[in-house]
Amino acid sequence: MLGRLLFLGSLLSALLALILAFPPGWLLLKSHESFPLVFGTAEVTVPQGGWRPHLQFFKNSLSETVKEVSVEALKTEYFSHVTPYGEKAQAAVTAYLAEETRVKPMGRDEREWYFDSDWEGFLKLWEKEGGDVVWKPLETVTKETGSRHYVTQIEGLGVHFMVTEIEGKDANAPPLGLLLMNGWPSNLHEWLPLLSAWKKEKDLVPNRPLKIVTVSIPGLGASFSENPTRQFLVTSAAHVIRVLAEQRLAGLFERYIVCGTDWGALISEMMAIMVAREQGERKLAGIFHGMAVAASPPHELLLFQMHEGVGRILLQGEDEAVVRVFSSKRGAARELIGQFWERSAYQHMLNTRPVGTAMAMGTSPLSFCALVFEKFYEWSSLGRPDVSKTEREALWRQIASVCTMAGANRGMEAGFRYYRENIPVMYTELMRTRMPQSVPFALASFPGDPFSALGPERYLRLRYPSAIQVRRHSEGGHFPSLEVPLLLATDLRDFVNALLVG
Length: 502
What we know:
Elements: H1 2-21, H2 25-28, H3 56-61, E1 67-69, H4 71-79, H5 87-103, H6 118-129, H7 132-145, E2 148-154, E3 157-166, E4 176-181, H8 192-200, E5 210-215, H9 234-248, E6 255-260, H10 263-276, E7 284-289, H11 298-305, H12 310-316, H13 319-326, H14 332-342, H15 345-352, H16 354-361, H17 365-378, H18 389-406, H19 411-428, E8 441-445, H20 457-463, E9 467-472, H21 480-483, H22 485-498
Parallel strand pairs: 4-5, 4-6, 6-7, 7-8, 8-9
Antiparallel strand pairs: 1-2, 2-3, 3-5
Helix pairs in contact: 7-8, 7-18, 8-22, 9-10, 12-19, 15-19, 16-19, 17-18
């Protein structure tokens, strides 16, 4: 009898080990059909009465039609709303940061602190160029690429976007739309190197013409669009972007794909879920995912998949759970948590105290810079000492743009609240949801991105069953358009060429 029990126990142990080593998709993920398109008591799309535009530019001159605007008009509107700060205040903050960062080394190792020299160079560039550090790159790329800027109103919310046309090898083929969507703390400046490179490089010509729409996503803080004064979830953002692509721009292209990084990537996933549940012709032809994450196997980090996992750790600080996670250094998922925990103090503040943090940061664009400067360096490959001056200055201009725009449009509070309102559903629902088979995906992973630690290819293919292109790169990070624009453009061109779109 004892022998039979031991044999049965061994058999069950072997079966369990086999399941843990090669877990089926149903064990790790749930169907997109069960994803809740309502989170809490918030409406899926629009609060009653819309989101109340507050910028005069949108109140006076905007309707549900699409209107072309100049960069100069955008500059005039947004600069008139920048939070003022005096030279003495800036000098005082600069001196304090210099004392705290450049003089005294901090952290356990050198990669954790990047202010040693770049902070001073960044401030000198900002002081030298003033407002041009924000607007000159946008004006230059707009002119070089022949891009045009537009605004429209969707659900009472002012939305800005930029259109860039790319010629195709077959000029007679119907154009395909390509929406570029960034995350926090970025804005459309992130995409300027990609647009510039794509226009200049003849080898990057796709098979068909492209209408590239760089979207200023509302609610992310540094956006050129309106920042909502009411709750704005990823479902709301996905709805607004779909209205823009499928209704307002219906005369520009019939079908479109989306390329997203950071929150833009998560919004694109939400769009895929929405589209898959609808009947009739689908205008969304595919999604290029610049931050693909996959379900981790239970034996690596079962905690990560459960409601007791990252979402609750970040929001409630369960010490015992944290100890269990960090007790072992093995596994890609634990590596992700370790990196993320070390590099995400900003997120804990945004998750828990968005309004107070925004008020503290809102005293000066420079104060906000002190918060986001490290993220751009730690989450990218641009903090390396061998980075060229041109690449580094492109990053500095991006940071200056983000900090200025966040002070111009109620951006700090909006961006911080976006985290507080959306992080729970992201960790407890979205990251455990299998994407629909009906929407083709392309996945790209960059080593400088902390999220790249999570996503062995077999698990990526479980979460994204319709992936037709999966590439792991040896360079680049969380902001690939800033860091490796040619590499990203090549990936996008190949994805466009691989899609069977009529």
